[in-house]
Structure formats: C-alpha cells, structure tokens
Write a structure and sequence with these properties.
- The protein is mainly alpha-helical.
- It contains five helices and four strands, in the order E-E-H-H-E-E-H-H-H.
- It has one domain: de novo design (two linked rop proteins) (Up-down Bundle).
- The strands form two sheets. A two-stranded antiparallel sheet has the order 1-2. Strands 3-4 form a two-stranded antiparallel sheet.
Length: 182
C-alpha cells in the first residue's frame, strides 16, 4: 500500500525508520594526538623518577623505602632478579622510560610505532617482575608496583597513539586516518 497500512477503516502511515547508526558527530571520541603525547610524556617522566630513585638508592647499597612499611622493597632489591646480565633493572627502566619520553616528544609514524614497541616490551618485563614478586620471592616492592602501573598506562597511551594516529602525516597526501573512526 505504498508506505501505509490499513487499520480498520483508516489508513495509518508507517512509522519513521529506526536509526541504527549515530551521526558522525556522536562517533567515538578520540583525544587529540597532542593530548596523548602530553600524557605519555608526563607518565614517562614519572616513570623515570621512580626508576631513578630505585637505582640511586640501590647503588648506595640500600633498598627503596617501602612507604607502607614492611620489607618487600628490601627483599626485591636483594633478590637475584633485581639485575639482568649484571645491570640493575632500575637502570634498564630509566633507559626504557627515557626512550618512551623521546617517542612522546617526537612526531610521526616512526615515533608512534617505536613508542608502542618499547611500551610492549616494558609492560611485558614489568609483568614478569610482578609475577616474580608474587610467586617466586614472595615480596612486593611498592616502587616496583608503581613502575609497573606507569608502564601499563604508557602501554595504553602508546597503543591509542599508534592505532589512532598511524598515518596521520599522510592526510595531505590523500590518506584519511580517521576513515572508519566515525
């Protein structure tokens, strides 16, 4: 009946179609790449601070002070897992955080991919060390947990940056990195 239905003696128009897709203006909200880079830089600076504190204290023959008390930081610092190939893992952390800071400050796809790769490695190693603390040496170092949390947040930030903005420099060349984001 051409868009109308008969009900008894009167003709009622069909209801309007139900929208199954929101307009583009209601699509996923992505933070700007600048905002993601700023967050990543701040997280990397905080991580550098935590790792530097651990490295300096351990270089002086001590262990980081556990803020909540206990001896978990001392146990972790004294364990064989606190060094990798003779290098204090906190020093490796400083290097990793410094590289992540450089990636956050740099623009372009190389920095996006490098930041993501470094964050994946850092997250994986932090997860391994957390496993060691929980199930091998049975001691939790609060500073190590803080570093692991910062590395987890850096992984998220770098994944958002890589998957959200990879190829963004090609927009002027006819490539639209936001295609499919609406």
């Amino acid at each position: 009946m051409n868009g109308h239905r008969a009900r008894g003696a009167r003709i009622v128009p069909d209801p309007p179609p139900i929208r199954t897709k929101l307009p583009a203006r209601y699509g996923p909200v992505m933070p700007s790449e600048r905002a993601v880079r700023t967050v990543a830089a701040l997280l990397a600076l905080a991580g550098t601070g935590v790792a530097t504190y651990i490295a300096v204290v351990e270089a002086g023959g001590g262990a980081p002070q556990c803020l909540a008390g206990g001896h978990g930081c001392q146990v972790a610092a004294d364990s064989s897992y606190s060094h990798l190939a003779g290098v204090n893992v906190a020093v490796l952390g400083i290097a990793g955080y410094a590289l992540l800071l450089l990636c956050a400050l740099a623009g372009g796809d190389v920095a996006r991919v490098a930041g993501m790769a470094i964050a994946i490695v850092g997250f994986g190693y932090s997860a391994y060390l957390t496993y060691v603390e929980l199930f091998v040496i049975d001691a939790i170092c609060e500073w190590c947990v803080a570093s692991g949390a910062l590395m987890t947040l850096l992984l998220v930030a770098n994944l958002v940056r890589a998957f959200g903005y990879l190829g963004a420099g090609l927009v002027g060349a006819g490539h639209d990195p936001t295609a499919g984001h609406a």
